[in-house]
Structure formats: C-alpha cells, structure tokens
C-alpha cells in the first residue's frame, strides 16, 4: 500500500495481514494487524490477530498482553482464552495456562483442544489425575482424534476393560480411514495401551506400523547429521580446547545435562533441582540459538552453522557466545526468583555442542547421562518425539546411537577431567546415594538429603519421563521387554558389534 492509499478502516488491514500470513511474512502481518488495532481499538478481532501473530513470532509475553486486551473487549470468546492459555504455556506459567484453558472449556464445553492442552500442562505439573480427566474430556468431545488417545494412555496404564481401551482398539482396526499422520498416532497410542496390559508382541507390532508411518513424514538427512558428528573431533582436539581454556564467559552457574533422549537425563535434572541452590530450567534450546548467531551461518540455510567458519573462531567469539547464552537464559531463570545459585540446562542434544560449551563457558559443568544402548533405543522407538527425526527407523536409530557414542568418547578423551561427569542410569538405580553424592560433588554443591527424595519435588517436567520422576526409583525400570532378535536386526546392525557386545554384558550384569 502507498501512503496515499492507506485505508482508514480496520478491514483492509486485516485482509492485508491475513495475506501476509498466507505467504509466511509474519512481520508484515504484524504491522497490518497493529494498524487495524490502532484504527479500531475497541474491536476484539484485530487484537486477537495481533496476539496470534506475536505468538507465532515467539514473542509470548507480548502475545499474552494482546490476548488479555482482546478478552477485555470480548470476555465470552473461548478462542481468546485458548490463545491466552497457549501464550502462558510457552512462558512456562503452567498453572495460569490451565486456568485459561479451563475458562475456554467453561465458555465452550466442546473446546476439545483446550481440554487436551490443559491435560498437557497438568501432566507437566505432575497432576496426573487431573490430566487424565482433561484428556478424557477431550476424547468424549472428539472421539476420533488419535492425538488425544496417545496423550491419555501416557498418563497411566489403561485397563483392558476400560471403555477407552475398547474405543482405541476399534479405531486402530479402522486405521485406514485416517490420514497418514493420524494413523501413526493411533498405532503409537494402541501400542502403548497394549504394552500396559502385557500384550507385548501385539504392542511392538503396532509400534512398528506407527514408526513406519511417522517416518514417511519426517525430514532427516542422515549423511549430513552423522557427517557433522565425524567432523567435530577434527575441530575440537585436546590441544584446541586446552589453548582456548578460560577465554569464555566465566560464570559457574550452568550445569548442562546431555545424552540421548530416554537415557535418564530427566531423572538427573530432577535430583539436582531438588537441591535448594539449583533451579531446574528444563530442556532449553538457547545455547544452540546463540551458537548460530555467533558463528557465521551457511548462506543457503541460515539455521545451519557453517562448519568451515569454526576453524577461524577466536577468543572474542567464544566469549560473546557465553555472554549471549546467559543473556538468553535470563527470561527462563526469572522463574527461580533469584534464589538459586546454579541452574540446569537439560537439552539432550547439547551433546553435539560440548566443545562449544566448554570454550564459551569454561566453568560450566557437564553431566553425560548414559543408559544401555538397546534400552535407550527401544524407549525412543516407543514414543513420538518432535525433535528426534532419527528415531522412527531401527537402522537409522542404531547408526545415530553409534555416532553419538563415538562423539561422546571423543569429548571424554579431550575435555579436562573436572568438566564432564558420566552417570550410568543403571548405576544410579543400583547405587543411588553414592551416585548422587558424586553428582553433587562434581557440580560443587554441598550434600542435601532432599536430593534423595527427588520424587517429592514440585516443578514442571515436560519430557516423556514426567511420570517416572514423580516416583521413587525401581529396578524394573532398567530393562523393558524386548522383541525377538530378528525383529531388531536392523537396530543391532546399526549399533554395530562393539555396542551390541557391551549391551549384552550390561544385561548379564543387571540380571
């Protein structure tokens, strides 16, 4: 629009904003919606569109304010309360998000998405009975949405005579009537339900189907991912790390917990977060975000680091990286109320960034969470993860684990001895107090008995282990049922003979 043709009503600006949304230009859309708000400040619709765009831009605090403004103008609009709930959820204000979602359901009892999202928040808060009821309400309103069943079965075991079990079995039998993504959700949900009643062979049959369907819709470049793992040891040798030691940002606060998903990292964070001097910040992607800003990026893909540029990085860049990461963490850490001296960052895939972390934050401590290769991979294969593109094909999963294991072996060789501590899940279960004492000592924390009662700690846990860390440790969690050897052949081949032999040795020790 030219200055002479600028409209003086909100409608054209709303249409312009919608057109910008359609072509993916969120910043331009936001400008259009802001113009509409200025022209018609007492109309809720422009404020709603503006708030939704701010949320899409991940400007959640502003989105919250926008939704509250829209609600003040149209308080009985359930969609506005749902949007407010979403913004609050992204800000980690889960209790407030639950209230917003519940208000949406009160205004519109058929708001199944709001019930489902309330269930997600309640599960993260450890309020499993309430989460169970929220998911059940969503199922009753929209009984053909597989996602609600998958969430429902993850809040607790479903008895074989439960009406929902029968509904799920019927839907799974009619899976062909759903699109590919929903078929995958159905098979994962039914596979979980079958496992809960001891029908393990049938469960794995559905997990194989669900994973194959989900893999069709996942973009994953195996050669690129594993190639990066192979290149990092060339860039981060012992000499390079020793020469750069001490040049990054000096604070001692961060404790990075890294490893494969489903390896026990959530449990380790829960133990540390039970210490009065530690704030558990959860899975944070801020280090990776700071890294791609710090290092010159690939011109063809602004989200991908130009590995060649790493060879030219110097002290100034590493120091800036550490400072930028800590700046980005100020928002999440505000929830601690300034009481904790240390914080945990439990993003598993920071295992790739261990070298960067040490250069940028040389006083940070790193905990490597490890578990049996087979048990880790089977646990990953039983779940849908939105950031684990390698987890839906047994061969790809095994090869990824082997590359991860090789990279961690490199970090073990080249890092100073006091930087990284490796914790085996099996050892944590078998020698709990001794392992916790070693963990706290590594992080420079004094002993505190509350770390042994980790399951009593109240905090947000948004990972797939949210239920497990609310319970005391139990040995049966170490080894899950496993299918026949021939069904796992692609996984064993991907893992390779060395890891397969090590896993067999662990199994004998556990037995």
Description of the structure:
By secondary structure, this protein is of the alpha/beta class. It has a domain of 254 residues: Rossmann fold (3-Layer(aba) Sandwich), CATH 3.40.50. Helix content is 58%, strand content 6%. The strands form two sheets. Strands 2-5-1-6-7 form a five-stranded parallel beta sheet, sandwiched between helices. The model has no long low-confidence stretch (mean pLDDT 89).
Beta-strand residue percentage: 5-15%
Integer average pLDDT: 89
Name given to the CATH architecture of the domain at 222-475: 3-Layer(aba) Sandwich
Q: Count all strands and give the number.
A: 7
What's the shape?
globular
- Helix % is 55-70%
Distance between the termini: 73 Å
Protein name: Sulfotransferase
InterPro entries: P-loop_NTPase (IPR027417), TPR-like_helical_dom_sf (IPR011990), TPR_rpt (IPR019734), TPST-like (IPR026634)
Organism: Paraburkholderia translucens
TPR repeats: 10-43, 44-77, 78-111, 112-145
Layout of helices and strands:
Elements: H1 10-22, H2 26-39, H3 44-56, H4 60-73, H5 78-90, H6 94-107, H7 112-124, H8 128-141, H9 146-153, H10 163-173, H11 180-196, H12 200-216, H13 222-235, H14 238-244, E1 254-259, H15 265-273, E2 278-280, H16 286-294, E3 297-298, E4 301-305, H17 307-310, H18 315-328, H19 330-333, E5 342-345, H20 354-360, E6 365-370, H21 373-381, H22 394-414, E7 420-424, H23 425-430, H24 432-442, H25 489-510
Parallel strand pairs: 1-5, 1-6, 2-5, 6-7
Antiparallel strand pairs: 3-4
Pfam family, one: TPR_16
InterPro entries: P-loop_NTPase (IPR027417), TPR-like_helical_dom_sf (IPR011990), TPR_rpt (IPR019734), TPST-like (IPR026634)
Organism: Paraburkholderia translucens
């Amino acid at each position: 629009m030219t200055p002479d043709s600028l409209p003086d009503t909100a409608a054209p600006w709303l249409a312009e904003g919608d057109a910008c949304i359609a072509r993916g230009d969120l910043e331009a859309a936001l400008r259009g919606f802001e113009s509409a708000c200025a022209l018609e400040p007492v109309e809720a619709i422009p404020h709603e569109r503006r708030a939704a765009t701010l949320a899409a831009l991940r400007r959640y605090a502003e989105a919250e304010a926008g939704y509250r403004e829209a609600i003040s103008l149209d308080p009985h609009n359930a969609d506005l309360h749902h949007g407010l709930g979403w913004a609050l959820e992204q800000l980690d204000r889960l209790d407030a998000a639950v209230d917003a979602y519940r208000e949406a359901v009160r205004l519109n009892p058929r708001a199944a998405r709001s019930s489902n999202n309330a269930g997600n928040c309640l599960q993260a808060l450890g309020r499993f009975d309430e989460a169970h009821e929220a998911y059940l309400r969503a199922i009753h309103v929209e009984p053909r949405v597989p996602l609600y069943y998958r969430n429902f079965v993850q809040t607790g075991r479903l008895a074989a005579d439960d009406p929902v079990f029968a509904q799920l079995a019927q839907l799974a039998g009619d899976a062909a009537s759903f699109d590919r993504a929903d078929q995958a959700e159905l098979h994962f949900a039914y596979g979980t339900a079958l496992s809960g009643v001891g029908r393990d062979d049938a469960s794995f049959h559905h997990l194989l189907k669900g994973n194959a369907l989900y893999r069709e819709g996942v973009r994953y470049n195996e050669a690129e991912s594993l190639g990066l793992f192979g290149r990092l040891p060339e860039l981060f040798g012992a000499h390079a790390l020793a020469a750069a030691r001490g040049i990054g940002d000096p604070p001692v606060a961060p404790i990075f917990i890294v490893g494969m998903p489903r390896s026990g990292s959530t449990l380790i964070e829960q133990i540390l977060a039970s210490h009065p001097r530690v704030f558990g910040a959860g899975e944070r992607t801020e280090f990776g975000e700071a890294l791609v800003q710090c290092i010159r990026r690939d011109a063809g893909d602004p989200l991908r680091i130009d590995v060649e540029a790493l060879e030219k990085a110097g002290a100034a860049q590493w120091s800036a990286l550490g400072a930028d990461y800590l700046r980005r963490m100020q928002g999440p850490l505000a929830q601690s109320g300034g009481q904790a001296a240390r914080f945990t960052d439990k993003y598993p895939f920071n295992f790739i960034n261990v070298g960067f972390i040490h250069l940028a934050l040389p006083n940070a401590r790193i905990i490597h969470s490890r578990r049996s290769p087979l048990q880790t991979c089977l646990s990953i294969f039983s779940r849908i993860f939105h950031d684990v593109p390698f987890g839906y094909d047994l061969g790809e999963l095994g090869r990824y684990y082997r590359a991860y294991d090789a990279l961690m072996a490199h970090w073990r060789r080249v890092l100073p001895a006091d930087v990284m501590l490796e914790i085996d899940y099996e050892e944590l279960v078998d020698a709990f107090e001794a392992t916790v004492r070693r963990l706290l000592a590594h992080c420079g924390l004094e002993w505190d008995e509350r770390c042994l009662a980790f399951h009593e700690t109240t905090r947000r846990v948004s990972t797939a282990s949210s239920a497990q860390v609310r319970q005391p440790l139990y040995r049966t969690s170490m080894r899950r049922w496993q299918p026949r050897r021939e069904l796992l052949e692609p996984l064993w081949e991907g893992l390779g003979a060395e890891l397969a032999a090590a896993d067999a040795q662990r199994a004998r020790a556990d037995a």
